[in-house]
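Recap for those who missed Tuesday's class. We walked through two folding examples back to back. For each one, the amino acid string is listed first and its predicted structure tokens come directly after. Nothing is annotated here on purpose, so try labeling regions yourself before you check the end of the notes.
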Amino acid sequence: MKKLYLLIAVFMLVLCNLIADIIHINCDGTGDYTTIQEGINVSISGDTVLVEPGTYVENINYNGKNIVVGSLFFTTNDTSYISQTIIDANYSNSVVKFLNQEDTVAVLSGFSIKHGQYYRGAGIYCHDASPTINNVVVSNCYADKGGGMFFALSNSNLRDIKIIDGSADISAGGIYLEDSNLNFENLSLISNNSLQECGGIYIKSNSNVFIDGGYIVDNTSDEDGSGILCVDSYLDLKNIIITGNKNNSSWLGWGGGIYYYSSKGILNNVLIRDNESNAGGGMYVSGSSLYMIDVEIKNNIAGNGGGIVWNNSSLTLSKVSICNNIAENFGAGIYFLDNSVATFDEDNRSNIYDNIYVNNRGSGRDIYAIGSVNVNAFIDTFTVINPSDYYVTPIDSFNFNILHGLKDSLINSDIYVSVDGNNQNSGISPESPLRSVSYALSRIYSDRVNHNTIFLSPGVYSPTNTNEVFPLHWNNYVSLEGTSYDETILDAESTNNVLGF
């Protein structure tokens, strides 16, 4: 009996395939119809609406039909048909809509989608439907939310998707999704913009998103998460490059590359570089739990936390490199806030080195913490082998196990500085002085047992004369001695405060 049911099922499947129609669309009149929507209207579930190259100025709606709408790419796998087959809404409504519980059998494949304008999902609007979408380029679409795509209550699979120059008034120039579970393979979000939050992809409301492969590049926003914003959701990123994303606002905006808020996720083989924001140039992680493996965070810029800000969050790091990031103020590499927890993998060690801050020299160049932090940091390469509070503030909150120092070891002795000195000198004697107080602060080592002093010879120590960077935020257990008040002068030349403690 079971074999009989199986034979019947196979027969029905073959019969359905035999009776499924291919409806040919050609805008020059040589096909069955000249518009794609006409083909959809006459189709039944299981049919294929096959579209010849050309520009189709229209909006299409699947109307609940589980059909394939594809360019000749669908039958040939020739990617040149994607750019040749265009659906252009002429700034009137969404270009493509799925609104009637279409499932994964409904397919959109091999199109360039342009010039949609709608309050949600100007390129593709998908609500309570779960179509399969592949090899689609969406460009120059405009919405309040989700300029390129909008998903709600969806469980879609998407492959080889590119969204370019999308824009939004409120959220996500690229993709906006809520209450959805989406799988992306090869997703590229390029030069999308939001006038408020998130230029690239905004994930919210208990969504689960998996992205394997792609680029999140040059997206901008005036507020949080210019590249990616994940709120109350789960986001798994793998084999992704996130670069050049930027907050435009001078005072708003956290997380230039990624902002996780009250979320969970995994980052695996992710490069986060050259992003910019007011806090967390590479990443801002708040109230979240993340596991990161083979992640590189480099060359990002922020006011605080050039590489990453951890705010009341739990992170596990395995082979993570945080280097060459820049902060205007504190924590050029990492900025800890409010009881954050970091677990460093002892077997697959991470690297933290050569992060730079512009202003507050002398406090947390690589790591800066506020609040209760107690971290056992197993590091392969740090900027120096024995960090002082110049590199890590407060140094007593961190227990380091470091294998390699990128620079020479710090100087555990008094240091001498002169306007006639040279920062290539040893600095450990009056006969071989360094030239700048700023550099001396970066090299001197002091702790509760080893108290050391920077001795200044007569002269003017200023940005012009000795290349100082003010304010000089002072290291713990380090003293400063000049010769006299009228001979040894610290001159900030009206650039900033002189000293900070």
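Example two. Treat it independently of the first, because the proteins are unrelated.
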Amino acid sequence: MRREALSSLPGRVDLVIIGGGITGAGLFREASRLGLNVLLLEQADFASGTSSGSSKLVHGGLRYLKTGQWNLTLESVRERQRLLREAAGLVERQPFLMPLYRGMKPGRTALRFGLWLYDRMAGSGHAPSRYIDAAQALALEPSLRRTGLLGAMLYDDARTDDARLVLRLIFESAGRRAIARNYTRAVELLRADGKVCGVGVQDLLDSSVREIHAAMVINATGAWAEGLSQGEAPRLRPLRGSHFVFPAAKLPLGRAVSWLHPRDRRPIFAYPWEGATLYGTTDLDHNESRYQHPRMSPDEHQYLLEGLAHQFPDLQLHAGDATSIYSAVRPVVAGGKADPSAESRESALWSAPGVVGITGGKLTTFRVTARQVLAKAAEQDPRFVPGAGRLFAETPSAQRLDGRLGSAAVRMREEMLAIEQAPLGETPYSLAELRWAARHEQVVHLDDLLLRRTRIGLIAPHGGRALLQQVQPICEAELGWSAELWQDKVRRYLELWQRDHAPTLTVS
């Protein structure tokens, strides 16, 4: 799917979706299945906001049981199971170990009951949780803190590459009647006779502008929803979540480990992801501008390192051991809770003639959210009644590449040179994946390629600087970049990486 000129877009469509994160991508997928003329607009790159900076977990939210959000947990668990079936190779089973220590609350009995409920919600085909003693726990994860260890609970959730999930939803849905564009801003809602009737659009690469008329507009901009809502949107409480990514050799885990931070008893976790180990997360009010990329604060930096030292004291990990950090803003609807983590993760809908808005929600439940939004739009136009069927087209196998690319994986293997399909350096990605993305996936900048189409910028040392020489000929051949433009793109990427992802902050 190449990025066409703004002037080539149709002047009228059935539906405009504003926002290229997981909610917008899910809507794009569901609407395209209805045979509608759909246009998705993203002002930056697809998944460049919250949807590439999540904890990458597809989970039911075990902690939501404690706060009484039973429906949200049930809905999330069911969607997790659906995604494990329908997006195999992209959404994968993630075993968890939760160590139990002397004097810890909740204790063994309460946790076993909560996990029993969790198992029942998942239904058949789900590995049941179980208790193991301290010796068994240490045999599985030798780096655990040993003092006071009684045993551990084992249970299952799932993980994904959040950015790649968004990209697969978009690229597998795109076609003649479904068009998605990145770096394209909806600058205003068009109105006629008291009804929204389209959007004014600007291409941020060449500054061209035009108007697109539509039967319905959906505002799916997440943390930025209030900007286009003109007062209809609920009040948001943007919360920042930050994470470390460590080399697997520095934080070696065979499964996810979840524990409570000693400072505030919030659940934190670390688990294997894309050949590295991901660790987080914080949950703090984000008071900076939502129009600047969020960054981990020195306080978060220290908080996370404290939590790591508490659970894995023998590893003696420091920020300099990490490969990268990342942060994102969660669009949580304000509920007046004193504790940010106590706020509900339920989504919120609003509407006016010709427009529906959506914000809040969870990565795991994006499909349910998309169908709820379309059902709301159908109250104004019956063409938007959501359909039935599988979320994704069937893929030939559950291999990693089939999960990441979906139906395009077969074509990719045929189109790309065999010599380029081997893993690049110590990463799980190949030059063939980079070439495919550059050729077909609307890559504009180097960070599109290295932070979202692949995650090289998060898992390779120094953002993958040592691999850039091998990436250069691909970008020059597929994107038409001159040697001079390549240097400009590299400079931009390395500055961005140093600002947002370099792990060695100065801690106050």
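Answers for example two:
The mean pLDDT is 92.
The chain has 16 helices and 18 strands.
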